Amino acid sequence: MFKRKKILVTGGAGFLGSHLCRKLLSQNHEVICVDNFFTGNKDNIIDLLDNPRFELIRHDVTFPLFVEVDEIYNLACPASPIHYQHDPVQTTKTSVHGAINMLGLAKRTGAKIFQASTSEVYGDPIVHPQVESYWGNVNPIGERSCYDEGKRCAETLFFDYRKQHNLKIKVARIFNTYGPNMHPNDGRVVSNFIMQALQNQDITLYGNGEQTRSFCYVDDLINAFIKFMDTDDSVTGPINLGNPTEFTIKELAEKVIQLTRSSSALTYQTLPNDDPKQRRPDISLAKEHLNWQPTIALEQGLEKTIEYFSSLINASERQS
Ligand code: NAD
Ligand code: UDP
Ligand code: UDP
User: Per-residue b/e over 126-157, b at no fewer than 16 CB within 10 Å?
Assistant: First the structure.
């Protein structure tokens, strides 16, 4: 029988959070969205504000929060390198203090708690594809460290709260995900390439473009979040969530040019420090425990994302 749950989504006005809030509301649950709007945007959730089962709280998770809920999805944290490197101390605080506060909340209320961890915990990986048992190759004092080490420490906290306080935890290591509601200027590769292609600007390949990533469409990922939350309490993760089909960044650029029928040319720029050379999830655990695997191929997902960014560009042209 259906049981309506009260669900907290931190970072709910961001890219992934806004899709998650929408999906949970469509399943008839009550959703409390908490966001400080650092990288999130009210436009992402504007259509939800009239829903009586939806509540928005402007709040920074590095401060304590007292609400009564059955489940918590902890997504609050800037995710793109330019955003998380803008104020690296605040990034680590968001991951670490944010995790402590949300775990404290879960401890007091008995709520199940999901953590949006990341493939970045593997750093520049030597083991390929990445399996959850791999400990990673992370620089503790580099440009990416505030994000990578913050997320690693959050994982430690999740597992120690489980050991000490018997919390019901679900730790997901999310791999590169894309789709509508991505921030157009967040510097991530999919948003950059599509925005550049649609405006016939040069496509900026960092390094030689031979580094690889594996891109998951957002709808597939959100389905996995909910399946994971619904697993038995013994299933804690960490579990990799992502699409195991791997592409070079150059292949991605060529696909975007083809799908947008753009006249953009490729240009080569310096590769940022510590940029991982390869990344692909091993999703055997997700298949086994969640009975999940992605269903949306890159081309299909890119078409929907291109449509979204085109409408953003058209809207801003109408305004100017
Ligand atoms: P996003 O930047 O669009 O969303 C993050 C949201 O968190 C934003 O709405 C932002 O305003 C909010 N936020 C940031 N700091 C906060 C704070 N201190 N208090 C309250 N809210 C705060 O990023 P996203 O892509 O939606 O990522 C969501 C989560 O998933 C992040 O934790 C990220 O690390 C993780 N993740 C995402 C990806 C991906 O490919 N998108 C990959 C791995 C992990
Ligand atoms: N906390 C919170 N909401 C709650 C319960 C706790 O934000 O509903 C915060 C609390 O302020 C504390 C943190 O979560 O800083 C960790 O809580 P815990 O109970 O583990 O630690 P303690 O309060 O004993 O330091
Ligand atoms: N990248 C690129 N051009 C861009 C933006 C990114 O070549 O305009 C590269 C980047 O160097 C990295 C890959 O694309 O190798 C993915 O970058 P993104 O910032 O999207 O994610 P992450 O590095 O965190 O996986």
Answer: eeebbebebebebeeeebbbbbbbbbbebbeb
CA distances from 62 to 34, 76, 98 (A): 12, 10, 5
Superfamily of domain 6-178+216-244+280-295, CATH level 4 = NAD(P)-binding Rossmann-like Domain (3.40.50.720)
- The answer, yes or no, to whether any atom of ligand 3 lies below 6 A from the CB of 213, is yes
* Ligand 2 close to Cβ of residue 67 (< 6 A): no
Length of the chain: 320
**Using an 8 Å Cβ cutoff, are 298 and 251 in contact?**
no
Find the 63 Cα to ligand 2 centroid distance in Å: 10
Which residue ranges make up each domain of the chain? 6-178+216-244+280-295
Q: How many other C-beta atoms are found inside a 10 Å radius of the C-beta of residue 2?
A: 7
> Is the ipTM value over 0.90, yes or no?
yes
Atom of ligand 3 nearest to the CA of 279: 25
* Ligand 2: residue whose CA is nearest its atom 5: 105
Contacts of 61 (CB under 8 A, 6+ apart): 10, 34, 36, 74, 76, 94, 97, 98, 101, 102
Q: Which sign, positive or negative, has the C-alpha torsion 162, 165, 168, 173? A: negative
Please give the full DSSP string across 78-113, using - where no structure is assigned.
Answer: --SHHHHTTSHHHHHHHHHHHHHHHHHHHHHHT-EE
DSSP state of 121: G
Contact status, residue 224 vs residue 303, Cβ threshold 8 Å: no
- Residue indicated by tokens 């058209």: 314
| 271 Cα–ligand 1 center, Å | 24
- Ligand 3: which residue has its CA nearest to atom 3? 205
* Main-chain dihedrals φ then ψ at residue 159, nearest 5 degrees: -70, -30
Atom of ligand 3 lying closest to residue 144 CA? 24
pTM of the model: 0.97
pLDDT per residue as tens digits for the range 70-123: 999 999 999 999 999 999 999 999 999 999 999 999 999 999 999 999 999 999
